[in-house]
Write the structure tokens for this entry.
Amino acid sequence: MVMYKKDILTMNKIIKLIFVLCCFCGIAQAQPQRPKLVVGIVIDQMRWDYLYRYYARYGEGGFKRMLGEGFSVENCKIPYIPSVTAIGHSSIWTGSVPSIHGIAGNNFVKDGKVVNCTADDTVNPVGSDSKAGKMSPRNLWVTAIGDELRLATNNRSKVIGVALKDRASILPAGHHANGAFWVDENFFGGLINFAKGVWRYRWVGQ
């Protein structure tokens, strides 16, 4: 069989095209299915060894399920001091440290005065006139995981922070969250507003 130079070049192009298509097919098949729901839980002052020390007391659908189906990082170090709530939450959800994400403590000095880590006089709360609601992630210099998720999905993803304290709700949720909910200083009234606020999003119960 005699092949001309033109035929050989055409054959090479076809082989390369098949190779590229096979590579793309392999990449497409290797993509894992995206989860529909991601829940991040942070428990203050719960040491990693409690997962095993109290294992027999956990329910099958709670910590036992997370240990069985999830991933537990047990050899990690905290690269900052002090290890307080605001710094911890900010570091977990941004993957950064205080010198980069800007949260240096639950309270820290800013412009010569001590401020709360989430204090922001330029905002007003929804559903309350309490000063405890004048909080935002303004002091957080970088994006959190939720911010990146919202950007990656063209704002189709929904991100909310829920906690008893403002800093534990606001900082993990980030700058672009759909909402952040916490209990204000009027505890019982705050709990009612807290519940109403969370459940006004119809998709929370779905």
Summary: DSSP finds eight helices and four strands in the chain. The two ends are 67 Å apart (CA to CA). The first helix runs from residue 5 to 30.
